Model the fold of this input.
Amino acid sequence: MPGRLHWMASRWPSDNVLFSKFKKHLSGTRFSSVSDEKTAAENWLNGQGRDFHQDGLNKLVLRSDKQI
Done:
């Protein structure tokens, strides 16, 4: 089972890889509520251009193709 867990965990990139730009954007920011955090995340994602989202989808497809 430990080998399987490692395999399953390694199938997906860490949050650090996925959200590095977002983490840089919010570096040092403190929120007073979870709602404020959610709003900041939504605003940041909505502010990204089409290329940002298309690039993310393309990378997701490439990663999933490697796993199949």
Observations:
- Residues 34-67 form one domain.
- The radius of gyration is 15 Å.
- Helices lie at 2-10, 15-18, 20-25, 34-47, 50-67.
- Residues 1-9 have pLDDT under 50 and may be disordered.
